[in-house]
């Protein structure tokens, strides 16, 4: 017996609370060598380990954590509604058809 999976709408993607501008400003302070890394991390709100790691490779770009979303939540909900409507009409889509529908929605 299969379960009906329900996605939780209130769950948010974990986000870093610092910006690339603050990272660049922290790098400038580190180049001046007037303060320590821990003090700089507290001042700019960047975790010290993140600051050390990114400074070592001069990585200034901020990437999202986890997988990148292809469909937003609303589009995904519309796709699910469409698939359920097809099933109720007597045309239950198989896995291949669902993939094709998802690809068309993503375009």
Automatic annotation (TrEMBL):
One Gene Ontology cellular component annotation? nucleus
Occurrences of domain HTH psq-type (ranges): 21-62
GO molecular function annotation: DNA binding
InterPro entries (alphabetical): Homeodomain-like_sf, HTH_Psq
Where in the cell does this protein reside? Answer: Nucleus
Query: Entry's SUPFAM superfamilies?
Result: Homeodomain-like (SSF46689)
Q: What is this protein called?
A: HTH psq-type domain-containing protein
**Species classification:** Eukaryota, Metazoa, Ecdysozoa, Arthropoda, Hexapoda
């Amino acid at each position: 017996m299969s379960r009906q999976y329900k996605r939780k709408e209130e769950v948010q993607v974990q986000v870093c609370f610092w910006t690339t501008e603050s990272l660049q400003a922290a790098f400038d302070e580190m180049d001046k060598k007037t303060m320590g890394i821990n003090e700089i991390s507290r001042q700019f709100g960047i975790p010290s380990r993140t600051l050390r790691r990114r400074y070592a490779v001069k990585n200034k770009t901020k990437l999202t954590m986890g997988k990148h979303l292809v469909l937003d939540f609303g589009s995904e909900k519309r796709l699910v509604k469409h698939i359920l409507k097809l099933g109720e009409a007597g045309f239950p889509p198989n896995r291949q058809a669902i993939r094709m529908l998802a690809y068309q929605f993503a375009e």
